[in-house]
Amino acid sequence: xxxxxxxxxxxxxxxxxxxxxxxxxxxxxxxxxxxxxxxxxxxxxxxxxxxxxxxxxxxxxxxxxxxxxxxxxxxxxxxxxxxxxxxxxxxxxxxxxxxxxxxxxxxxxxxxxxxxxxxxxxxxxxxxxxxxxxxxxxxxxxxxxxxxxxxxxxxxxxxxxxxxxxxxxxxxxxxxxxxxxxxxxxxxxxxxxxxxxxxxxxxxxxxxxxxxxxxxxxxxxxxxxxxxxxxxxxxxxxxxxxxxxxxxxxxxxxxxxxxxxxxxxxxxxxxxxxxxxxxxxxxxxxxxxxxxxxxxxxxxxxxxxxxxxxxxxxxxxxxxxxxxxxxxxxxxxxxxxx
Length: 338
Ligand code: ATP
Ligand code: MG
Ligand code: FE
What we know:
about 350 residues, alpha/beta, five-stranded mixed beta sheet, 10 helices, globular, tRNA processing, KAE1/TsaD
């Protein structure tokens, strides 16, 4: 029951071998961060080239580390969206080639479903379920009445949480991606700036982070012009407190509106210690009857293991890609698979 999974939606080239949807036999992640850092973000053309350069090595390594060969596989799985089109195409093409050559079914996987399934390595899923997915390109609350059914009930109206971290990080001179460093600085500072908490008290499940980003940037620039240097730890702590307050508040609101058995926290920003601790606290206080699974720290960022876990479920539900499977950069949960 082995799945060979591919993930190339952004700047990580990753191939994994997953057994029974829950056991990681190998999970090779080749990151390109160094190549993009000097540009302060991911350059799509550079990303595609890297994927092409690394993909076959990642396949060989994933199989070798798992100690398996092509005939042992049950299926091949690949992220076909959302993401950068050129990056996605490398994974989709490689997965097609392997599946075709070895007469294996090809499973098309949504990258955000993949993020969600990173939490499956922590424990079993229970439905109905709510997920807070926070990453570099997405910030959304997803309601799942049952397995394999996704409904977005709240999302950001502008920037994603991770994107906001990366943008304010740039202002503080932190290399891309800035989330981890800002998180570390935040732990050493205090919320002295009280930045706005956009839409926190509004009666909906949506988010907005661009106002916070602007308030942050203005504060730093104004201080600069006065020749004043602000405490970077307090700036980080204030920014993070604002992000975490809004994410936690809206998640609690979602749980009030949708009675669920379980909450999932996943996506790159799910690695944030402030957010993890706050949700631990709030869930114990307000929703102690709802269990929570937080994606493991090491599987919050992009990786193929999570794609393999999601694919195992998709496979059971009969999802199969045709040989003309294309990358879908703007793929959404509620849109029919193309
Ligand atoms: P998407 O999944 O939406 O397509 P992506 O794949 O580029 O976007 P991920 O890899 O899931 O995004 O997450 C990367 C983001 O997570 C970056 O913006 C990064 O700054 C952020 N991030 C990583 N660690 C932390 C942390 N500890 N605190 C806050 N943000 C973090
Ligand atoms: Mg990445
Ligand atoms: Fe991602």
